[in-house]
């Protein structure tokens, strides 16, 4: 039985930065999830510990494509033709969701959270199929966060995440949001209405 894990939360930071000890990933706009994969099933579990019930085909595809037992950290997203996340398509359950995976917490019985991020990413790269259609590896760049953030903003993406390259799971994680991101428009009001209905 795979233990239950708590996903790490990046701290919000206003300014992008360059640093030789950091890697930088795109911040994918979707539903954060841990994927618990064993021989029989895959469960996608939210930040609050709730199992997502509306992605059975994605769960089946992840289990088929991954040839090991693992706990993956990532984001459920719907992508447009240019590979950009479309949050409202995901929210309305339109399109084909994929799982962008950026970390590996547990593999075949071993807890990896104390290992350096770079080592976890290397192991993750080795188990995610190159030609997968449902399970996508979240790549990164090293050192150059400022230019990377500028590029993310130019492409109207949500932002970037900075992570200490030799850090344990969650150590030195920062999120830098694009303040002009178009898909933020109306989102606060949408979730306020949902909360009132609930």
Describe the structure.
The strands form two sheets. Strands 3, 4, 5, 6, 7 and 8 form a six-stranded mixed β-sheet that branches. This protein has a five-stranded mixed β-sheet with strand order 1-11-10-2-9. Mean pLDDT is 92; it is low at 191-198. With 198 residues, it is an alpha+beta fold. Helix content is 24%, strand content 31%. It has one domain (11-197): DNA ligase/mRNA capping enzyme (D-amino Acid Aminotransferase, Chain A, domain 1). The protein is globular. β6 (97-107) and β7 (110-111) form a beta hairpin. The chain has five helices and eleven strands; from the N terminus they run ββββαβαββαββαββα. It starts with 10 loop residues before the first strand and ends with a helix.
Outline of the structure:
This protein is α+β, with helices and mostly antiparallel strands. The protein is 24% helix and 31% strand.
Kindly list the characteristics that best describe this protein.
24% helix; alpha+beta; D-amino Acid Aminotransferase, Chain A, domain 1; six-stranded mixed β-sheet; 198 residues; 31% strand; five-stranded mixed β-sheet
- The first-to-last residue Cα distance is 34 Å
Query: How much beta, percentage-wise?
Result: 25-35%
- H/I helix tally: 5
CATH architecture: 2-Layer Sandwich
What is the fourth-level CATH superfamily?
A: DNA ligase/mRNA capping enzyme
The SSE string, one letter per element, is EEEEHEHEEHEEHEEH
Q: Characterize the biggest β-sheet.
A: 6 strands, mixed
Q: What is the total number of structural domains?
A: 1
Backbone shape: globular
What ranges have pLDDT less than 50 throughout 5 or more consecutive residues? 191-198
Name of the top-level CATH class: Alpha Beta
Rg from Cα: 17 Å
Q: Look at the helices and sheets and give the structural class.
A: alpha+beta
Average of the residue pLDDT scores: 92
Tell me roughly what share of residues is in helical segments: 10-25%
Let me know the number of strands: 11
What is the name of the CATH topology?
Answer: D-amino Acid Aminotransferase, Chain A, domain 1
């Amino acid at each position: 039985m795979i233990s239950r894990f708590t996903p790490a939360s990046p701290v919000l930071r206003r300014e992008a930065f360059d640093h030789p000890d950091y890697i930088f990933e795109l911040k994918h706009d979707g539903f954060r999830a841990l994927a618990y994969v064993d021989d029989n099933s895959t469960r996608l579990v939210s930040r609050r510990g709730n199992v997502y019930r509306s992605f059975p085909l994605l769960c089946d595809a992840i289990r088929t494509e991954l040839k090991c037992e693992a706990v993956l950290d990532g984001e459920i997203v719907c992508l447009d033709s240019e590979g950009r996340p479309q949050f409202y398509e995901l929210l309305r359950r339109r399109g084909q969701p994929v799982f962008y995976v950026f970390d590996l917490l547990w593999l075949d019985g071993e807890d990896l959270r104390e290992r350096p991020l770079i080592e976890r990413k290397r192991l993750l790269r080795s188990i995610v199929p190159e030609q997968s259609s449902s399970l996508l590896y979240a790549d990164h760049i090293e050192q150059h966060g400022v230019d990377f953030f500028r590029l993310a903003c130019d492409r109207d993406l949500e932002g970037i995440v900075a992570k200490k390259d030799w850090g344990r799971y969650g150590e030195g994680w920062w999120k830098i949001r694009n303040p002009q991101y178009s898909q933020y428009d109306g989102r606060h009001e949408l979730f306020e209405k949902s909360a009132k209905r609930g």
